[in-house]
UniProtKB/TrEMBL annotation:
GO BP annotation list: amino acid transport
Name used for this protein in its record: Leu/Ile/Val-binding protein
Lineage: Bacteria, Pseudomonadati, Pseudomonadota, Betaproteobacteria, Burkholderiales
Entry-linked Pfam families: Peripla_BP_6
Domain Leucine-binding protein: 50-379
UniProt family annotation: Belongs to the leucine-binding protein family.
SUPFAM superfamilies recorded: Periplasmic binding protein-like I
Keywords on record: Amino-acid transport, Signal, Transport
């Protein structure tokens, strides 16, 4: 074919009209294409969706340091989980926080917002037993798993609900109370224990537990005194405990009121051993209590001092890399907040994977399917069951005190003091 013939043929092909598809066919093809595109977008969107984890805790005020410790423990765990592929075949975890300011009413509002607006798959509750107790009914009603990494009130997990959506990786008052009594007797030779307790549900929970522990030993408190969370002087209560012959005090209260107990003892000139629940560990205790803050011995569930494990080495390295203020174990404070929150988050991720979905009821039963997890605090073997929603026991407790504004185990503290 000549060049001119080829050119004419091409031109004819270009200019010759092609039969257009009917309108009906065009609409059908378009609809199929649109459906396919929508399916692809939806699938991609689902794969990209994060699984939201809520945290309600004190992020301001006297206990803000403890709220930050919980945040850091959860964040390090979430970073590890996301780096290893997330949950449910590739979905990332996302932490969403709300400040309860230690106020039950604000805690309830925060929990409702996280559940209804943010659609969290699991809700973590922070520091205060009254706040957690206010959230428990909502979690059980809405079937949203509620994980406690700090508040120790016995009724939080022993709440009577069936099914029960509340779990905990933390101390439990009724166990701590027995440990406090034994520690006071063994360490200080206590014969007459005086109780000084905050006047709220947490104080009530511990009064019941301590009295039961003393009853089991065939004795009873020398006296029981209460104080309000905002009291700035408790010398009247302490005076009555002294008059009753108390030789050791068992104290339950958060940072501020516990500091006032120590300062009131200073004003009285009464030097008496204090064995405390872990309230003083939650914030600016040494600043508020003064020099004698170091005399208070309190319970913890973990210390970064002592023998290390592969998990603790990894966590400390991650904390140092992410938070410039952490140079070593001394700076991880309160350690209990970091450790409890870290293990609780890792166990929660396992429960979500065991559930195979973000359904609240599926995650609840997912906790029961956890066989073994080598955690920071310990190796957990079947930590949860229908009958047991607390993962830690008395064997997981250590005793600590403040030395140079740092929380250290009592034995290590004694060694440090002796070296000075």
């Amino acid at each position: 074919m000549s060049a001119s013939a080829r050119q004419n043929a091409v031109g004819a092909a270009i200019t010759t009209p092609v039969a257009a598809p009917s309108r009906r066919r065009w609409l059908r093809v378009s609809a199929v294409a649109l459906a396919a595109a929508t399916l692809c977008v939806s699938a991609a969107g689902y794969a990209a969706d994060t699984v939201k984890i809520g945290l309600v805790t004190a992020l301001s005020g006297q206990s803000a340091r403890a709220g930050e410790a919980l945040t850091r423990g959860m964040t390090i765990a979430i970073d590890e989980i996301n780096a290893s592929g997330g949950v449910l075949g590739g979905r990332k975890l996302e932490l969403v926080r709300r400040d309860d300011e230690g106020n039950p009413a604000k805690g309830v509002l925060a929990a409702r917002e996280l559940i209804y607006k943010d659609k969290v798959a699991v809700l973590f509750g922070g520091l205060d037993t009254p706040v957690s107790m206010a959230i428990v009914p909502i979690a059980n009603q809405e079937k949203v798993p509620f994980m406690g990494p700090w508040a120790a009130g016995t009724p939080i997990t022993h709440n009577g609900a069936n099914p029960n959506y509340v779990f905990r990786v933390s101390a439990v008052d009724e166990i701590v109370d027995g440990a406090m009594v034994s520690y006071a007797q063994q360490t200080f030779g206590a014969k007459k224990l005086g109780l000084i307790l905050v006047n709220n549900p947490w104080g009530e929970s511990n009064e019941k537990g301590i009295v039961a522990a003393l009853t089991a030993k065939g004795t009873k408190p020398a006296a029981v005194e209460k104080f309000e969370a905002n009291d700035v002087d408790v010398t009247p209560q302490l005076g009555r405990l002294k008059a009753a012959g108390a030789d050791t005090l068992l104290m339950v209260g958060n940072v501020g009121p516990s500091a006032q107990v120590v300062k009131s003892l200073d004003r009285m000139g009464w030097k008496v051993p204090i064995v405390s629940h872990w309230g003083p560990a939650g914030g600016r205790f040494t600043e508020l209590a003064g020099p004698n803050a170091k005399t208070v011995h309190f319970v913890q569930t973990y210390s970064f001092f002592g023998a290390t494990s592969p998990v603790s080495t990894r966590v400390v390295a991650a904390l140092k890399a992410k938070y410039p203020d952490i140079k070593g174990p001394d700076d991880i404070t309160p350690a209990v907040g970091v450790a409890n929150a870290y293990d609780a988050m890792r166990l929660t991720a396992l429960a979500i994977d065991r559930a195979g979905s973000t359904s609240g009821d599926a995650i609840r039963t997912g906790f029961y399917k956890i066989d073994r997890y080598e955690g920071l605090i310990k190796t957990y073997v079947k930590p949860f069951s229908e009958q047991q929603h607390d993962a830690l026991s008395a064997q997981d407790y250590v005793w600590a005190q403040f030395i140079d504004n740092r929380i250290v185990p009592v034995a290590a503290a004694g060694a440090k003091v002796a070296a000075k």
